[in-house]
Amino acid sequence: MSKSFEQWQAAAATLAFPHQALIDGKQVAAASGKTFDCISPIDGRVLAKVAECGEEDIHRAVQSARRSFDKGDWSASKPSARKKVLLKLAALLEQHAEELALLESLDMGKPVGDALKVDVSASVRCFNWTAEAIDKIYDEIAPTGPDELGLITREPLGVIGAIVPWNFPLLMASWKLAPALAMGNSVVLKPSEKSPLTALRLAELALQAGLPPGVLNVVPGFGKEAGEPLALHMDVDGLVFTGSTAVGKYLLQCAGRSNMKRTYLECGGKSPNIVFADAPSLEIAARGAASGIFYNQGEVCTAASRLYVDRRIKDEFVAKVVEFGREMQPAHPFTPRAPMGALVDEGQTQRVLSYIEQGKASGARLALGGARVSPVEGGCYVEPTIFDEVKQDAVIAQEEIFGPVLSVIGFDDEVEALRLANDTPFGLAAGVWTRDINRAHRMARSLRAGSVWVNYWDGGDMTAPFGGYKQSGNGRDKSLHAFDKYTELKATWINL
Ligand code: NAD
Q: Which ligand 1 atom is the nearest neighbour of the CA of 466?
């Protein structure tokens, strides 16, 4: 049964906040002794003073990861042994689900109910699915003549640096850690400075599950001071990143300037959601359009931030989206079924508000919202906001806002819809609503995006890869394809 507001508050009052780095299996302060404030955007309260790692800590963590890798307790263990530990970790995450959901909600402001139902349960599924997969992957034998044998084997890369964002802190860490660890790598994880708590807790649980010390190190800290030394480190073999396109591009340069480490990026988006007049249900499509942009306060890489609607139904359709959007007002994240919580911090709130001002100045029609609100004093809350009659080249239609702001644009036919949808440097996701199966397939083929959803938004599971075209990234998380990022392929030829 779901908890009441008061029950969540009571649970939050007894919560312990992890605040130290985890290096070589030990909880440690930063070498400099520095800490940074972990502030809850719910009400501006300081939750914890977290170790602020810098270059020296990163170096210690990489050395520890390297030692553990070379020692082989994990890297040379049988897949069935690694599977056992990762299944145990999944079970521990499940056991601590409410605690993790609370930490996530307090740390980054999302509704605690969503954190429990989506973030934590998807992380549990990620570890379970990956653990179940690893003892079912076979190496290959190359087709050869009778006098030779060609073996194609997968080997772990070695030391992986993982840098993750703040919008789904536990889940983004899980998408990196599960396949990296499953393949036998050792990892140094840098969570976002805006939401470090659940990654630190995850690492404690991983030790408890039996992961050998040094195989997973977590170094909280800022991008320049902690992320960059990791990206430039000569003894990191692979870097996996989820975050903004700007930082992703910079990390590619870091790889070039250092040891050409394998660098895989999952970056930003500006996803088009295309509604044709023959959508199976305008009601369902409108609800999908509203939740596609307002879920998680719009802080979703696949947020349906550009809505393209057939001009013949646009006014009627936008009215419905406005109606559903109006129901999604932000509330204290402990409120049962809160549709939106707080934005991650004051900086992000100001960023979103400045885009809203640019939207107003662009001549677009403000159809809903457009202001900061205060369901909780001292918190970071912005209304669900919808701009209609947005110009395709307007800043709000081109740049990733990462907040609850929707841009609506009309189209006359399929050709125009496709042209407008693909007119973006991003290519993460796209949605199409139509009853015409031929059109659905034509659109899905031609949309330059890593995920296409037909007649719903945000489908997905561990069974399918997730990632971006164009400047939305160059790798894939989830599914067996994710293992490619964490392994080298070796060809061994034997003369018979
Ligand atoms: P960000 O790029 O600002 O930060 C991401 C991480 O990179 C953080 O840990 C940060 O500390 C670190 N970082 C920042 N500067 C760095 C530097 N110079 N060197 C090394 N590390 C550095 O992104 P964010 O604001 O945390 O997250 C929002 C972005 O993440 C959005 O663009 C969103 O679309 C994207 N995102 C993408 C996906 C996906 O799967 N494609 C999923 C979630 C979020």
A: 40
* Region at 7 (left for phi over 0; alpha for psi -120 to 50; beta for the rest): alpha
Instruction: Determine if ligand 1 sits within 6 Å of the CB of residue 414.
Output: no
Q: Is the CB of 119 under 6 A from ligand 1?
A: no
Among 52, 193, 266, 414, which one carries the catalytic annotation? Answer: 266
- pLDDT tens digit sequence for 26-80: 999 999 999 999 999 999 999 999 999 999 999 999 999 999 999 999 999 999 9
Instruction: Give every CB contact of residue 42 below 8 A, 6+ residues apart in sequence.
Output: 105, 106, 109, 332, 333, 341, 342, 376, 379
Instruction: Give ∠ CA 348-173-101 in degrees, rounded to 5.
Output: 70
Tokens of 21: 């780095």
Nearest CA to ligand 1 atom 11: 223
Beta bridge partners of 451: 429
Instruction: Identify residue 293 by its one-letter amino acid code.
Output: I
Q: Under a CB-based contact definition with an 8 Å cutoff, are residues 368 and 31 in contact?
A: no
Q: Which helix (H) or strand (E) holds 91?
A: helix 79-95
Taking residue 350's Cβ as centre, other Cβ atoms within 10 Å add up to 12
Give the integer Cα–Cα distance in Å for 333 and 341. 5
Q: Evaluate: CB of 166 within 6 angstroms of ligand 1.
A: yes
Is residue 225 within 6 Å of ligand 1 at its C-beta? no
Q: Give the span between the Cα atoms of 99 and 433, in whole angstroms.
A: 38
For residues 205 and 214, give the distance between their C-alpha atoms in angstroms, rounded to a whole number.
14
List of residues 6+ apart from 436 with CB closer than 8 A: 276, 278
Between CA 114 and CA 117 the distance in angstroms is 5
pLDDT of the residue at 2: 84
Q: Is the pLDDT of residue 1 over 70?
A: no
Average per-residue pLDDT in the chain?
98
- DSSP conformation class of 330: B
266 is catalytic: yes
- What's the CA-to-centroid distance between 260 and ligand 1, angstroms? 21
